[in-house]
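Hey team,

Filing this mostly as a record. A colleague (T.K.) asked me to run one chain through the structure pipeline before their review meeting, and I want the input and output archived in the tracker in case anyone asks later how it was produced. No errors, nothing strange. Just documentation.

Input sequence:
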Amino acid sequence: MMQIERFLKYLSDVKRYSVHTITAYKTDLYQFYEFCGLKKSDENFSRITTKLVRAWIVAEMRGDLSAAGDKLSAASGKRKLSSVKAFFRFLVKEKVVKENPAEGISGPKLPKRLPVFVREEDMENTLNDAEKGEGFSGLRNFLILLMAYDTGMRRSEIVGLKVEDVDLSRRCIRVHGKGGKEREIPIVSELMQDVECYLETRKRIVEQEHGMFFVTDKGDPIYANFVYRLVTKELGEHTSLSKRSPHVLRHSFATHLLDNGAPIQGIKELLGHSSLAATQVYTHNSVEKMLKIFKQAHPRA
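Output structure:
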């Protein structure tokens, strides 16, 4: 399994993938190795054919390799196949093998799912109620919600935000996104005022400066579950959505921008997407909305 370790180091040092992503790759590849009968001392890749890779993914999808017989979802199957494809691309690049046996295999088709988002009026109600919170915790909780919605930042980006990343003089936030990519997001006037107020209050809370922007009541950096619980609670009180994760606020940010005329290329840059295809999913919501209006209003619909 020496080649797997080299590949994982490449993902960490060169591609700058997150620990969570690297762990997923590691699990997938170890399972693949086991299926193919590969060992650390004998990485005989010549036995790995396209037919064997396809047999592996089929067995995974059917649940043949699970002790409980659990079938994989299309998303999990696609991810596992992507892991093997990326691994062999690395081996080709390193001249360990000549061809990628997984390259021509199509993954399972994913069901089309539209992004879940909060209606504009529900979002306003959520923010208005959160703004009424008292003390430092009330101000911080409101700002987390407001920043997630006003900037479209991911949960991990909010948690990892540093004080130095917020440039009040230039009215922008420097965001450290996936794969070590950086982008800048403008700070709207409403957000600007709340950020200034929060930073003044934060000075009295943090005794030993660590540089992280959002902190707990004790002055320690916030963490992922902190944001998740906060957003889930607030959205649960003002919406009937079954899904209420922080990512819903990111979806709401993009959907509302698109609905109000923002160009999709601009939304792509604000979200930090590497390709336009990832952003185009939001156009489906707008099309669905237009069709609904058409059916309600057109005499021949």
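Quick notes for T.K.: The chain has 13 helices and three strands. Residues 121 and 238 are 10 Å apart (CA to CA).
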